Amino acid sequence: MAKKSPDEVHPVKAFGWAASDPSGHLSPFSFSRRATGEEDVRFKVLYCGICHSDLHCIKNEWGFSTYPLLPGHEIAGEVTEVGSKVTKVKPGDKVGVGCLVGACHSCDNCTADLENHCPQVIQTYNSIDVDGTMTYGGYSDHMVARERYIVRFPENMPLDAGAPLLCAGITVYSPMKYYGLSEPGMHIAVVGLGGLGHVAVKFAKAFGARVTVVSTSPKKEEEALKRLGADSFLVSTNMDQLKKEQFTLDGIIDTVSAVHPLLPLLGLLKANGKLILVGAPEKPLELPAFSVIMGRKTVAGSNIGGMKETQEMIDFAAKHNITADIEIIKADYLNTAMERLAKGDVRYRFVIDIANSVADIYRETTQRK
Amino acid sequence: MVANQPEKEHPMPAFGLAARDPSGVLSPFNFSRRATGEKDVKFKVMYCGICHSDLHMIKNEWGTSTYPLVPGHEIVGEVTEVGRQVEKFKVGDRVGVGCMVGSCRSCDNCSNGVENYCPKMILTYAGTYHDGTITYGGYSDVMVCDEHFVVRVPDALPLDAAAPLLCAGITLYSPLRYYGLDKPGIHVGVVGLGGLGHVGVKFAKAMGAKVTVISTSPAKKQEAIERHGADSFLVSRDQEQMQAAMGTLDGIIDTVSAVHPIMPLIGLLKTHGKLVLVGAPEKPLELPVFPLLMGRKIVGGSCIGGMKETQEMLDFAAKHNITADIEVISADYVNTAMQRLEKGDVKYRFVIDVANTLQQA
Description:
Chain A has 369 residues and is α/β, with parallel strands linked by helices. Chain A has helices at 52-58, 108-111, 159-162, 168-178, 195-206, 221-227, 239-244, 263-268, 289-293, 307-319, 334-342, 354-368; strands spanning 12-19, 26-33, 40-49, 75-82, 94-97, 100-102, 122-123, 142-146, 151-152, 187-191, 210-215, 232-235, 249-254, 269-277, 285-287, 298-301, 326-329, 349-353. In chain B, the strands form 4 sheets. In chain B, strands 3, 4, 5, 8, 9, 17 and 18 form a 7-stranded mixed beta sheet that branches. In chain B, strands 12-11-10-13-14-16 form a 6-stranded parallel beta sheet. Chain B has 12 helices and 18 strands. The A-B interface holds A 109, 114, 117, 178, 247, 262-263, 270-272, 277-281, 284-303 and B 108-109, 114, 117, 119, 175, 178, 262-263, 271, 277-281, 284-303.
C-alpha cells in the first residue's frame, strides 16, 4: 500500500508551516487532522509561540527529528467543536495546548498528574500518536487534542502573551514549586535572560523571592532591573563579582541551553542550595564533585510539568498579571525569526499571529484564482 | 608552611606519627597539645581509623596540606580530664572525635546543627585552630577537643570497630537521611565497596532498604551479599547488567573517589531518583543534562554530618549492631598500610592500635 501523503492521512484538511529537512527552512505545508473524537477539543489556532526547542528540532540538533516536521507547542486559540464526552470547555472558549498531547494514563506518573514523565508520553509535534500517525504542532490553522491536554485561558489573560507560558512558563514554574524555591523571602537567581529566563524572573518575584539575574551580557542589566523587576544583576564572566556573592542563594534556575561552567554558579549557593537545570545543552557539563559535596548542594533537572500543574500555573499567572514579553510576527517572517532566535535576538519570545497569517494565505490563494 | 617548634607551641607534650612532605611517609613526631581549657575534653587515644582522606592529605593530593601533618579523624579513646565547664563527659567515658574540632558556632549552619557546612569549620588535622595553631589528628597518643565536637561511643560498640564510623559512618548515614533514602522498602544503590561503601550497605539495610552494590570488581559480589547483606550486585562495566537494571533505584550513594562515568548511574535511577556523591574525585565528572531533565533526577553531594547527627548515627549503630569491618594494625605498620590502601587492599578499614603500639622512640 502506498504511503499516504500528509493531507490524506486524516479526514479534516489542515494547513501550516513545516520543515522538510535539517536545514530547518519552514514553508507552507498542507496536511490533515483527525475528526473530533468523543474526548477531543478542536480549536482554531490564533497564536503560537516560538520556543527554542522548535529551532533545535527543525534542525535535528537533538538527533530525533522526523520530517516533515511541523513545530509549535505554545498554542492558543478558540474552541470550534468538542466531542460528546468533553465537559471542560465549550465552543467559543479560549484554550491552549502545550508540549504534550497524550500519555498512557495508567502508570504511576500519570496517576500522579505527571504525564510529562510517562514513558509513553506523546509530544505535540514530532511524536507518534496512539493511532500511529505523526503529531503536528501549532504553526498551523487549527488543532485537535484530547480534553486532558487542553488548558483553559482565564478571561483576563491575553492569548498572544499568554501562549508562551504553555512551555516557557511551566518549565520554570514547576521546578520552583517542586524544589521548594517558591517560599517568600528566598533568594533565587535566574541564569540566562531569554524566553525562559524572563518568565522565571516574573514568577520568582510573584512568589516573593529576591531575584538576581545572572547573564553573560552586561547590556541586559537595565532591562533586568527596570523592566522585569529583578533585584540585582551579575555578569557571569565577572569572577570578582561572583566571588563576592558566594553562599547567598537558596536556589538557581539555569535556563542556558549551551554548555557553560557550573563551578561559579554552585559557589553562589548557600549550604543545601539547589541548582536547577532547565536548559538542555547537547553536550555534558562539567560537574566538580567538591562543589556539591562541600555544602551538600544539589544539581537537579526539570522538564515542563503535568497537565494539572500547567493549568495551576496559568491560573497563578493570570492572578499575578504574568505574561511573556513578546514580538508578534506573521508566518512570512518565520525563517527570519528563527535566524534571529539562533542569535538570541528577541525580547523575549516570538509569537506567530497564526489567524492573520492564515488569512493572508487565503487571500493570496483566492486572489490568484 | 612548616610549624615552628611544634614541641614548644603548647604546654602539654604529645607524640604521634606525621608526614613531613608530599612523599606521605609517616614517621615519629614530637609535638604538643594545649592545656585542657574550661570547655575541653582530654582523652587518651586508644584507636584511630585510617581514612582514605588521610592518604590524600599526607600526599597533598588536594593541594591543601601543610607539613608536618598528623592525620587521623576517626579517633576513639578514654577521657582523662575535663574542663570546668564541661557538662556532657567525665573521666573514664568512652569518646570519639571525627573530622572537625571547631566552627564559628554562630552562623545559620552552626545554629542548625550542621557545623560541617560552616564556612569556618576547623578540620581535625591540617586545619587552623581559633588560637592560630595547626591542628594535629588522631595518629597520636592524646587528644584535646572542645566538648561540642566530642561524641560518646555507646557501650554496646567495641572501640576499635566503632572508630571508622566517625568519618565513614556519618559520611553515609547523613545523606541516607537527608535525601530521604532511609524509608523501608526503598531501593538504594551503593557504588564502591570500600571503607565507605561497606558501612553504607549496613546502614541502608538497617534502615529497611533493598540494597544493590555497584562495583567494578566481580570478585566482590560474594562478600557484598553474604557478608554485608546486600540484596544484589551489579558489575558497572557489564553493559547488559546495567541496562537491565535501568530505572530501578530510588537513590544511589556513590563512594568512588576516582573520576568515573556517572551517566550509567543516572540511568539506573527511577524518575525523581537521586545520585548522591560522597567520594571526592579531584577532577570534574561529566554530567549529561538530558537524563536529569527527562526524569527530574538530581545529583547531590554530602560531606560528613553535624555533631548532633554524628551522635545519632553512633546510637543508631549501637542499636543495630553496626560496626566497620576492620584490620587492626600496629603503629609501625602504618606506611605499609597506606601502600595497601592505595591499591584498595583492605577489608575494609585499617585501624591503628594506638594505645598499645604507638610508642616514643
